[in-house]
Specification:
The protein is α+β, with helices and mostly antiparallel strands. The protein is built from three helices and four strands. Strands 1-2-3-4 form a four-stranded antiparallel beta sheet, with no helix packed on it.
Length: about 180
Amino acid sequence: MDTLLITLRVALSLGVVLALMWVLHRASKKRFAGKTSGRRAATVEVVGRQGLGGKASVVVVDVEGERLVLGVSEQGVSLLTSGQAPAPELTIVTGPVQLPVRPAPSADVFGQELALQADATTSLPADAATPLPMRPRNRRPQRTTVPTAQQLQGSILSVDTWRQAAAALRNRRAG
């Protein structure tokens, strides 16, 4: 009976804690939704990054119309130079755009090119008539000798190793 009572108290306590956490989460979400720390959020765009070695790099960043060149290292971030960010290049189109068009080849030109390709010789040059010698894929010499039992002693490939393992298992089961 005591176990049931303790289990119910723990479950009820856990439920109260979870409900309190949920209420606090909802309240903080409503209170701080869409707010920043007293000023409007700055848009930061990383334009480029170049590593200089180790953990040092140079980063080019655009922040609210200003371009910053920053040096980043293990010790911190330092401003190398700053200036006005270049304005994006915009092209305003006020009328219809004429695209360049290549004239299609005529049927006669196509027929002539096809005839030239059909008449071309497809035979190999005279020096290519002799076959090339084949090379083996791997450059290492192939092992032709089988290792002896003494060379394999203690190896997983050795039959004696497997026999010893089986005997050890049999002795453990019997004992």
